Amino acid sequence: MDLGQSKRGVDMGPSAMRYAGLSSRLKELGCKIKDTGNIQVPVKESLDDRNVLSEIYRACAAVYDAGRKAVAEGCIPVFIGGDHSISIGSVGGITHDFPAGLIWIDAHGDFNTQQTSTSGNIHGMSLAVLTGLGMPELVDIGRPGPKIDPNDIVLIGVRSLEQKEKKLLKKNNISIFTMRDIDEQGINSIMYKALDKLSHLDRIHVSMDMDSIDPMSAPGVGTPERGGLTYREAHLMMEIIADSGRLSSMDIVEINPIIDQSNQTAKIAVELTASLFGKSIL
Asked: What is the DSSP string of 143-204?
């Protein structure tokens, strides 16, 4: 899905990750894989502005149902985007029956509403929607009201926020570790603090926006921002979460093959997913 933003291309992210060998890499780790295919989303050009929101709703509702079903079957769902608005469905679905902590790895806060956003793009509102802020039709997907408590969210890798968004994040007491925090404290310290913040929860959902990584390493993303995570920092994050034994589900989003170089970003996304599922050097 690329309906949540203005730039075309991230709808091809799932195909790029499949082509980069996601299933085979996870099978090598002993995982049993069931690829349930794509949730069908119309192309933006076939819709008028009034229908875009309804199609985002429909797609996220389908993602919600898929996530809820996967958890009920004892699986670990991996949601491949597409833009980050899919998380409205994924986080909602995996928390339908059981709570989970949310580690949101992103260059952006995605904590805007219609009143604070300068672009109006839904993918920049998805985290706010999950806490109950914003358009009621999106907030109430799957079940009425918030899908996660703001105290159960840790946002990591941020380096680009809108002014009103900053105030909204502070007002809702979202735990944030910016790129400056990572530079000063080191990614290992940040990750242990994040896990400690969520220590009251047995399940963790990781929502990984590939624009969290510096575009020198991962150029094929929807909204690149200079000064991001290094390749090794990103892997260490995944490895530390894997070591915790609490991974319950994952989003990996915003891969744009149109502006990528030799599918480099999708390949890194596959490698990071493997690290999250336990791949280690030794």
From this structure: SSS-SS-GGGEEEEEE-B--HHHHHHHHHTT-EEEEHHHHHHH-HHHHHHHHHHHTTT-S-E
Burial class for 230, CB neighbours closer than 10 Å (0-12, 13-18, 19+): middle
- Domain of 126 in residue numbering reads as 10-276
The answer to whether residue 269 is domain-embedded is yes
The answer for residues whose C-beta is within 8 angstroms of residue 189's C-beta and 6 or more apart is none
Asked whether the beta carbons of 126 and 82 are under 8 A apart, the reply is no
State both tokens at 109. Answer: 């806060």
Identity of the residue numbered 170: K
pLDDT digits (tens, 9 = 90+) for 35-86: 999 999 988 778 877 788 999 999 999 999 999 999 999 999 999 999 999 9
pLDDT digits (tens, 9 = 90+) for 189-246: 999 999 999 999 999 999 999 999 999 999 999 889 999 999 999 999 999 999 999 9
* CATH number for the domain that contains residue 119: 3.40.800.10
The residues pairing with 155 across neighbouring beta strands, listed in sequence order, are 104, 176
Contact 247, 277 (CB under 8 A): yes
Q: Is residue 98 part of a domain?
A: yes
Domain count along the chain: 1
Specify the DSSP class assigned to residue 93.
H
**Active site members:** 84, 106, 108, 110, 123, 209, 211, 254
Amino acid sitting at position 206: V
Structure tokens at 34: 């069931």
> Is residue 105 a part of any domain in this protein?
yes
- What is the C-alpha to C-alpha distance for residues 189 and 192, in angstroms, rounded to an integer? 5
Query: Is 1 a member of any domain?
Result: no
Distances (CA, A) of 264 to 17, 27, 207: 10, 21, 20
